[in-house]
Amino acid sequence: MAESLLRFVDVAQEHPSKRAAKARTTDFQEIYEDYLRPKAAEQAARCSQCGVPFCQIHCPLHNNIPDWLKMTAEGRLDEAYEISSATNNMPEICGRICPQDRLCEGNCVIEKGFESVTIGAIERYITDTAWDKGWVTPPSPKRELSQSIGIVGAGPGGMAAAEELRRLGYQVVVYDRYDRVGGLLIYGIPNFKLEKEIVRRRADLLRDGGVRFQMDFEVGRDASLQELREKHSAILIATGVYKARDAALPGVGLGNIIQSMTFLTASNRKGLGDSVAQFESGELDASGKRVLVLGGGDTAMDCVRTAVRQGAKSVKCLYRRDRPNMPGSMREVEHAQEEGVEFVWLTAPEAYLGDDVVRGVRAVRIRLGAPDATGRQTPEIVAGSSHEIEADLVIKALGFDPEDLPTLFAEPGLSVTGWGTIGIDFRTKMTNLDGVFAAGDIVRGASLVVWAVRDGRDAAASIHSFLQKKLAGQPNESNDPERGGSNDKGKSSKRASRRRVHQSVD
Ligand code: FAD
Ligand code: SF4
Ligand code: SF4
């Protein structure tokens, strides 16, 4: 049944129902139920169809949100799906895990008095329906092209680029050091936020469309970047960032102090049915333990909520700022609190305590002082506030940096910024190496899935234009250092700092 629009005045915001905390912490299934069709139509009808839609402006993909809301309200779901998938290679994934409160929904103009339209949940509903109805089809090029593109990294950035390039007819080979396609969608983000089947069916779609995946293949170990360049007409690097930041505190070498990705990867592998020796031995299993997670981003939230589901005795999250200043999504913090996680705000660790194995941390209280250059208040230690917090397992979730790229890819000529990310020309997405492009976290630093998709799409368009010009015998624009592609780390980092769109999740 078609709903009339502008219903925000008489219809209240309603997200899909959330499973009760007690029930959902006994398993790793997603926590939200699906909308039923009338509810999706009713919620979509709350949209006021703004002339200048701020939701769309603040979506990194500039999704045509008002139009697909209108189609959903009118019951024209096939058209809603067509519009939604025109700008996004994985709308059902973004609908599930984008921090909407910071992006589209946080900028919905009806948010102030009436609470935003539930954009993410409706986006998810549209594409889940499309999958059920068989409307989601593999990329099927109108003509085959002889040129081949090598993509290094099968995360969301690499997947989005692979789909776009395959649609254009290129022969696409994706290399990844993992055994499964999806990058952090598989091994980082837990199942209760994004069920693995959702990622697997996207990977299968690409395979069915002719994208070839070469898994368990690490560039730098199994081939150098130069060897790949000789095999392909263009290369896209979309390898993400994996070097965990550390707190170099006294006692850091004690047992049972682990990194977030070690913990989350083991848990995700276990859920996928893999045998994980360190999990079976109890080393990476939070069951029965007092768990302390250090950090205040979304990765920290994923760790605390995973520990709860593994049956931890207690779970605490230690963060040096307060709740309003947490980098993580407020929605995730709320979920964690409902699930029994205790937040210890304005507190920072000073040392790990224990003999062989950690038994806790010594921590200090923090007060927030004057704002720094970025506008964030500087944490200051409260004198004489040192105290102990007990823990049997400490998980560090302090963010990620890129690995040493030139060494990793055996390519000393590759342009790297002062942060260790790949330097690109932001107009063409090309690095300083001819025909080598880069996208996603490896360019931005730890960011978001939706930005990786955006970058992957942009890079695919640039690669296409680069190869077309090459075929036509036209010169491609050189990688002008003034646009961020220099190999000079100092200069390039300053330029990048002016341009960087950093949406850290940590
Ligand atoms: P990745 O997803 O990291 O994929 C990179 C791929 O490259 C990997 O598969 C890796 O194996 C491969 N690779 C690396 N080096 C090599 C090599 N030398 N040779 C071959 N292959 C290589 N974002 C959100 O929007 N919402 C969330 O809720 C969210 N939660 C997160 C939770 C966690 C725990 C983490 C760590 C991140 C989270 N993010 C979230 C961030 C998001 O996952 C990333 O921004 C996104 O995955 C980046 O995509 P990418 O394609 O650039 O890199
Ligand atoms: Fe919102 Fe993300 Fe969907 Fe864009 S992709 S509309 S930001 S949920
Ligand atoms: Fe609709 Fe809100 Fe977007 Fe306006 S800002 S078009 S009300 S979803």
Overview of the structural elements:
The protein is an alpha/beta fold. It has three domains: about 5-135, Fumarate Reductase Iron-sulfur Protein, Chain B, domain 2 (Orthogonal Bundle); about 150-240 and about 400-500, FAD/NAD(P)-binding domain (3-Layer(bba) Sandwich), CATH 3.50.50.60; about 250-400, FAD/NAD(P)-binding domain. The chain is built from 20 helices and 16 strands. It has helices at about 20-25, 35-45, 55, 65-75, 75-85, 90-95, 110-115, 120-135, 155-165, 185, 195-210, 225-230, 260-270, 275-280, 300-310, 330-340, 405-410, 440-445, 450-470, 490-500; strands at about 150, 170-175, 210-215, 235, 245, 255-260, 290-295, 315-320, 340-345, 345-355, 360-370, 375-380, 385-390, 395, 400, 435-440. A hairpin with a 5-residue loop joins strand 11 (about 360-370) and strand 12. The structure holds flavin-adenine dinucleotide and iron/sulfur cluster (2 copies). Flavin-adenine dinucleotide (FAD) binds next to helix 9, helix 15, helix 18 and helix 19.
Properties at a glance:
506 residues, alpha/beta, Fumarate Reductase Iron-sulfur Protein, Chain B, domain 2, FAD/NAD(P)-binding domain, 3 domains, 5-stranded parallel β-sheet, binds flavin-adenine dinucleotide, binds iron/sulfur cluster
